[in-house]
Amino acid sequence: MATASSNGEQKTTSKPPPLPSPLRFSKFYQSNMRILVTGGAGFIGSHLVDKLMENEKNEVIVADNYFTGSKDNLKKWIGHPRFELIRHDVTQPLLVEVDQIYHLACPASPIFYKYNPVKTIKTNVIGTLNMLGLAKRVGARILLTSTSEVYGDPLIHPQPETYWGNVNPIGVRSCYDEGKRVAETLMFDYHRQHGIEIRIARIFNTYGPRMNIDDGRVVSNFIAQALRGESLTVQKPGTQTRSFCYVSDMVDGLIRLMEGEHTGPINIGNPGEFTMVELAETVKELIKPDVEINMVENTPDDPRQRKPDITKAKELLGWEPKVKLRDGLPLMEEDFRLRLGISKE
Ligand SMILES: NC(=O)c1ccc[n+]([C@@H]2O[C@H](COP(=O)([O-])OP(=O)(O)OC[C@H]3O[C@@H](n4cnc5c(N)ncnc54)[C@H](O)[C@@H]3O)[C@@H](O)[C@H]2O)c1
Ligand SMILES: O=c1ccn([C@@H]2O[C@H](COP(=O)(O)OP(=O)(O)O[C@H]3OC[C@@H](O)[C@H](O)[C@H]3O)[C@@H](O)[C@H]2O)c(=O)[nH]1
User: Fold this and answer.
1) Which of 198, 215, 240, 304 lies 20 to 30 angstroms, CA to CA, from 36?
2) What's the rounded Cα separation, in Å, for the pair 339 and 10?
3) What are phi and psi of 122, to 5 degrees?
4) Are 202 and 268 in contact (CB under 8 A)?
5) Could you tell me which CATH number the domain at 32-340 has?
6) Can you tell me which residues the record assigns to a coiled coil (predicted)?
């Protein structure tokens, strides 16, 4: 049990976690690393599970309520002896014995997190409290997937982790961005007060195969629209920017953060920055050159610019993204073609 926090402050630690089953110390038993992935049936979560399952020393448990995720994303692991899938809502306590927790459970696409905002904030606050309670009880290390949305509509560009953000506390996005900010606070309070080992990743826009076709986020929308021959819906003004990270780079960054020595928060994202008009033009050029681009109304509080400063990730985790947008989009196109049943002309 740690006695000093990463910033040198003294911590009050409560009672230590119970000892694990004697079986884990038995001479002839090689214990595996037991890893819980909440939200593991979703887009990033299922890719993370694939990577974790590659290591034969890992046992993976997924807890998911299937709000935006699906069993289909995990079908290759169902029935595997090192894998378990639990239908569970993180707003309820969970009793499992694990060594690490990747806490991803939360809808991520704006149309889904705004659909039931009260549930979104409960997922972020009560869900994170429950997972921290679990981490405390069993002595597990816990990683939270926070978001670039904690910077709100940023007034500093690119965004370093030291920036405190510019967030509307009462807007339609607040259930998500303020929810994640409270989740980060809870993580640090459990760390300082109870000595829990924490990791916080601030994820910037991530894309790749397995995103829901009707997820509503911009990359999946544009690819699905181009493949269906529908016009690409660029929300006004179209000059707003995002920086897109391919999912395999993201998973690599999350695992390095979990395995490393630093609590974070650490930005994980690709600094390649594009306006939404540039993204639409790239999708058009790569997938369907004759598709139209249609300017449509935007939603409130849409951040005007976003680009991660990844100096910390490079220095502390030895991580930087490898896949450029132009290389990642065709991989996603291939997956969408398969799922939509539209072959290349
Ligand atoms: N993809 C991105 O660009 C991005 C950016 C920043 C942060 N993140 C964070 O990464 C995580 C995963 O995002 P994603 O893109 O894979 O989204 P996703 O919607 O595909 O996955 C979220 C998963 O969480 C599950 N879930 C939602 N509420 C739950 C609850 N109450 N109990 C149990 N399970 C629940 C969903 O069913 C789904 O499987 C989220 O925490 C999100 O906030 C993602
Ligand atoms: O069809 C569309 C959808 C979206 N957009 C624009 O594309 C930009 C990105 O929108 P998205 O919905 O993909 O995602 P956002 O960047 O707004 O939010 C995301 O940020 C980080 C994560 O936490 C979440 O995955 C999500 O909240 C916005 O400016 C939006 O106005 C379009 O131009 N057309």
Assistant:
1) 215
2) 53
3) -65, -40
4) yes
5) 3.40.50.720
6) none
